[in-house]
Amino acid sequence: MHAPSLPDRSIEAYAEVTPGDRLERLRALAETLDGVRVLHVSSTSTGGGVAELLRSIVPVCVDLGVDTDWLVMDADDEFFEVTKALHNGLQGSGTELTEAMKATYRAVTERNATEIEGEYDVVVLHDPQPLGTIDRLEEAMPNATFVWRCHVDLTAPAEEHLAFVSEYAKRVDHAVFSRAAYGGSIDVPGASVVHPSIDPLSEKNRSLEEATVAAERDRLEPLSFDAPVVAQVSRFDPWKDQFGTLEASRRAREAVPDLQLALVGGMAGDDPEGAELYERVAEEAAADPDVHVLTDLPDTTVNVLQRESDVVVQKSLREGFWLVVSEALWKRTPVVGSNVGGIPLQVEDGHDGYLVEPNDVPGVTDGVVALLEDERLRTSFGANGRDRVRERFLLPRQLADLLGVLATVLDLEC
């Protein structure tokens, strides 16, 4: 286990983007949790949505006076191949979970658990990867409360994978899901729903000076913002369906000949499939000069790309939540997204974007073309999206929900 480096965050800095009563609620919750030690455990510190959430949540908690730590597992590719199979299986399409794979999972989680020092009142285990540490942690911290924060879509899990995870999940004290629908498949002692959020002050989402935008636009060449740009920002993962987005863009180009597509993604440290899929997508797009496949861009560059694109497509086949939708809407860029997971919570169809069924490539095409051909519509949708995210999907709201859950499971009045 190791503790990642964290940025400085002050709760006061959010006063410009969130209602004052929400900040007061956070301060009151922090007082309720005075003296409580909280530990978050995850599988990676970079490249995924969980890491992005914790990178903001933990320092804000510290600033509020809530004693909070974050530890990241130390593991190799063999372990992450097992946990990626678990992830895929929980979302309905996993490979067989062999006894050897289960043994690898148990060995790595137990070893990591032995490296956690000190006592905590609450331990939050994020997703299936660290869930197995509960075996050893229950012995080491008999008075601790254990919370499983599940970010995965559990609406149609493979039975074998669900059964394996359930053996651990049923022993936590409480589970937190991103949507109510995700908790119906698994037996846990108690459950809450907390929608994820974006951090409007992070490098990926903060406001930028014009000079910075101009410099980053130049850095993205040969992509040109003098012609229509459609972007998809996501990990290179089969569930994100970059190939479907590529096909939709080719169809849309029949109506908008100068359309350009940017497929942008990072490599999560706990996803061994990422590099292979990136190569496949790049090979498929290689012959098309108007398709740009980009990886591991700095957050500021992604910020500018989402801000300067005309439309963002987020075409998942299955999805836990996918905060890149709110990232785009926060920057006033309309979204054409799949009607799966947390995407329909973020996009109101016909108001700030369009929702289509996950395999509906023609529907994606129609939504993209409609937005590219109507600047007034894009502007209206963009403004509506900004307002929706401000109200529902910024970090102070999520943090208030999370601290409220922790206070409740500890039976503290708040």
From TrEMBL:
<keyword id="KW-0328">Glycosyltransferase</keyword>
<dbReference type="Pfam" id="PF21269">
    <property type="entry name" value="TreT_GT1"/>
</dbReference>
<dbReference type="InterPro" id="IPR049438">
    <property type="entry name" value="TreT_GT1"/>
</dbReference>
<dbReference type="GO" id="GO:0006006">
    <property type="term" value="P:glucose metabolic process"/>
</dbReference>
<feature type="domain" description="Glycosyl transferase family 1">
    <location>
        <begin position="226"/>
        <end position="387"/>
    </location>
</feature>
<dbReference type="InterPro" id="IPR052078">
    <property type="entry name" value="Trehalose_Metab_GTase"/>
</dbReference>
<feature type="domain" description="Trehalose synthase N-terminal">
    <location>
        <begin position="40"/>
        <end position="182"/>
    </location>
</feature>
<dbReference type="Pfam" id="PF00534">
    <property type="entry name" value="Glycos_transf_1"/>
</dbReference>
<dbReference type="GO" id="GO:0016757">
    <property type="term" value="F:glycosyltransferase activity"/>
</dbReference>
<keyword id="KW-0119">Carbohydrate metabolism</keyword>
<keyword id="KW-0313">Glucose metabolism</keyword>
<dbReference type="InterPro" id="IPR001296">
    <property type="entry name" value="Glyco_trans_1"/>
</dbReference>
<comment type="subunit">
    <text>Homodimer.</text>
</comment>
<keyword id="KW-0808">Transferase</keyword>
<comment type="similarity">
    <text>Belongs to the glycosyltransferase group 1 family. Glycosyltransferase 4 subfamily.</text>
</comment>
<protein>
    <submittedName>
        <fullName>Group 1 glycosyl transferase</fullName>
    </submittedName>
</protein>
